[in-house]
Amino acid sequence: MVSISGYHILEQLYNGSRTLIYRAIRENDRKPVVIKLLKNSLADFSELVQFRNQYTITKNIHSPYIIQSYSLEDYRNTCALVMEDMGGISLKEYFNNVETLYITSQNTTSQYITSQNNLLETPSAKSFLQEFLQIAIFLCDALDTLYHYRIIHKDIKPANILINPNTKQVKLSDFSIASLLPKETQIFIAPSVLEGTLSYISPEQTGRMNRGIDYRTDLYSLGVTFYELLTGELPFKSKDAMELVHCHIAKAPPSMKKLHSNSLLIKEREKEIPQVLSDIVIKLMAKNAEDRYQSALGLKYDLELCLKQIKEVEKIESFEIAQRDICNRFIISEKLYGRETEVHKLLAAFDRVSNGNSELILVAGFSGIGKTALVNEVHKPIVKQRGYFIKGKFDQYNRNIPLSAFVQAFKDLIGQLLTESDSQLSIWKNLILQALGDNGQVIIDVIPELENIIGKQPYAPELSGDAAQNRFNLLFQKFIQVFTTKEHPLVIFLDDLQWADSASLKLMQLLLSESKTGYLLMIGAYRDNEVFPAHPLMLTLNEASKIGTTINTIILKPLNKASLTELVADTLSCSKHLAKPLTNIIYQKTKGSPFFATQFLKALHHDGLINFDNQAGYWQCNINKVRSAALTDDVVEFTSIQLRKLPESTQDVLKLAACIGNQFDLETLAILSEKSKEETAACLWKALQKGLILPQSDVYKFFIQAENQEINSQTAKVAKYKFLHDRIQQAAYSLIPEEKKQKTHWQIGQALLRIISEEQLEEIIFEVVNQLNNGLKFCEQDATNKEKIARLNLQAGLKAKESTAYAAAVSYFSQGISLLACDFWEHQYKLSFELYRQLAEAEYLNGNFERA
């Protein structure tokens, strides 16, 4: 038995793979408590985040439906979470006891049976349903409490619901993965590392439904819980994680009346589960959140009707459910409107690729038209085919970084592989080494994360010119072929191709022209209003089509009024007829842009022009005030106005973040803003709540109310975020006065140089040099600084050249030469000679023979 200072341990309640739970008495006030400990004193950071998150979320909640946290205390290099003891057992254990009692009662004439020291009345089908409904109603109150506190639990299941067998008091426990954000976006990761419990997880929690996660995810998991309690079985059963994910997103649960089991209790219940109760559970388990119950109170009303009927007439008669189901929270509908044809084309392309083809499908349209939302629809069939989906994005303010989107995409893939079992990882290692031979380092130089799978590799022989490019191309083809097989097709999504560097365009063309690469679907999205016939992207596509590459293009048009009316009507839960006046105004301002339309609706709600009338029970909009409001029809200007409504401190960090790029980490941002990491995280919190930026992992939770916590650099570095949309990054960047933009970039570059080591500099040399080059005006009179930046440009050029990104290399070498002193051949001979020599070779490799 453990010993914890200040507590007298009574008994061990639970011994799991990661945690231990004890019942104890707090010595200073003799209060009964439950103490949860991490089993491993060297727990990894994600476990500490989850442990601390339970305390952060529940410490200020005083509700009869939530297990309260009293304190978080240090214990053997980790933490001890001290919680209230309500004398409960899990709902799973409780109903198992009830089933045992029922089966036993078939063979006994006694009215009472003792089980696990609890005296319970022998249940009948009627009393079982009555007890189930009473508990279900308590759970509705618990979920309504979460709704009131704006908490998403994300792991509702019988094991996390406690019931006192004597008092029948019910409480929710285990808030380790709960969220205080109104909506989260689950990134596409392996099922084995998804947050939550796979048997109860909602479709959107799988990250494969093109939907955000909000409070309605808990209603789905509650539906699975009800299903299990009523039938004794889970709706979907499989030991295969991917199959379970596919069931949640694509399969209807089996009818609750058609289940067959050896359990006597279930056989009796088959006849006793009324249709209306089955309808309630199935509605809770709807695949799309919009089709579920929208409020716990609406669900509670229906369950109370069922309970009333059982008490009064001893049976539940059918009635129309969800008639009192009203949601007073403003949620923009996430359905895809007016894109049925485009979705069909995309899914047809994936079907062809699953049969062994390779294909490029382009999605074109202006910014905010919904290109990414459309592409994400391919997630569903990927699950069925057990494929991999990876994505990378080119950045409008960092266009010179070679292969940046490919590197992001394959970092993503390696991250997915690293979550697989050791035996599977060993198979991947052997396959990759077999493909790359002794040249693995060539790919590691571009994708350093690969070393985590194949280990350190010998240095590859140095080659120059065409030989280096041919080797890189051949190796990258072989590398990709490892992941493109019938067993697991590969989808690579490259976003914002209009900003792609020439090396990325050449690699894309090469991969698609290589006949051996089957089972590969490459999806490219680009803004067709930002390209022209002589644009590098268009030239690349023309070359690819000439050699027979299959290229299909989906051109997205703005939403028409009918589709926009559906969006408004679904969002405001009203008829299309009532939605039309507001739709007309939105269409006039946004020209049918889905992104602009949703931001416009959010702004109207934020400004009080759309609000919920609690007494009337519906949404209302003051059309006259909307018409008279001075709202711009320029999306960047409009978004900038919305950003200006944020606290000034939040605006300031978002401006810096916009300069860094579409993605950024907390440590870098804290240094640049000259604030502590805690202060910087606090500044970002408002933007997170508004959904303007998205966390890239659950590490952000560590910084919520991070008092008395030691936050090291490594912790802050893994706290990563990204902008919701390019337009938001663009709007944040536009908040910087034009005359200060260069200075801001210069300061960022200088700050990065101060804080990173030589080794780190090699990894992010492009990011650092791009910032400095964007602010060169501020080193004009400083010869020492100019020489230093010239050397950095040489370093960046050499790395670009190694990656066969010759156009980028030319740019860096040229910039380095421009920084040389007027008498550079006399006083900077070695540097000058190297810059000119490398520029000549890069120009030659880039096909500019005359300049070379």
Question: How would you describe the overall organization of this protein?
Answer:
The chain is α+β, with helices and mostly antiparallel strands and about 850 residues long. About 50% of the residues lie in helices and about 10% in strands. It has 35 helices and 20 strands. Strands 1-2-3-5-4 form a five-stranded antiparallel β-sheet, with helices on one face. Helix 31 (about 765-775) packs across helix 32 (about 785-800). It is globular. The N and C termini lie far apart (about 75 Å). Mean pLDDT is about 85; it is low at about 100-120 and about 260-265.
Summarize the structure.
The chain is of the alpha+beta class and 852 residues long.
Helix share bin: 40-55%
Mean pLDDT: 87
Low-pLDDT sequence parts = 102-122, 258-266
Helical stretch tally: 35
Question: How are the strands of the biggest sheet laid out side by side?
Answer: 1-2-3-5-4
Shape: globular
Strand content: 5-15%
Largest sheet: 5 strands, antiparallel
Going by helix content, strand content and strand pairing, the class is alpha+beta
Instruction: Calculate Rg over CA atoms.
Output: 30 Å
CA distance, first residue to last residue: 77 Å
Count of distinct strands: 20
Q: Can you tag this structure with a few keywords?
A:
48% helix; alpha+beta; 35 helices; five-stranded parallel beta sheet; single chain; 852 residues; five-stranded antiparallel beta sheet
Topology diagram in text:
Layout: E1 7-15, E2 19-26, E3 31-38, H1 45-58, E4 69-75, E5 78-84, E6 89-90, H2 91-105, E7 112-115, E8 118-121, H3 125-148, E9 161-163, E10 170-172, H4 216-231, H5 241-250, H6 264-272, H7 275-284, H8 296-313, H9 340-354, E11 358-364, H10 371-375, H11 379-385, E12 388-393, H12 404-417, H13 422-436, H14 440-446, H15 451-454, H16 465-481, E13 490-495, H17 502-513, E14 520-526, H18 536-546, E15 551-555, H19 561-572, H20 576-590, H21 594-606, E16 610-613, E17 618-621, H22 623-628, H23 635-643, H24 648-660, E18 663-665, H25 666-673, H26 677-689, E19 693-695, H27 713-717, E20 720-723, H28 726-734, H29 738-755, H30 758-763, H31 765-773, H32 783-802, H33 806-818, H34 824-827, H35 829-845
Parallel strand pairs: 11-14, 11-15, 12-13, 13-14
Antiparallel strand pairs: 1-2, 2-3, 3-5, 4-5, 6-9, 7-8, 9-10, 16-17, 18-20, 19-20
Helix pairs in contact: 3-4, 3-8, 4-7, 17-18, 19-20, 20-21, 21-23, 23-28, 24-25, 24-26, 24-28, 25-26, 29-31, 31-32, 32-33, 32-35, 33-35
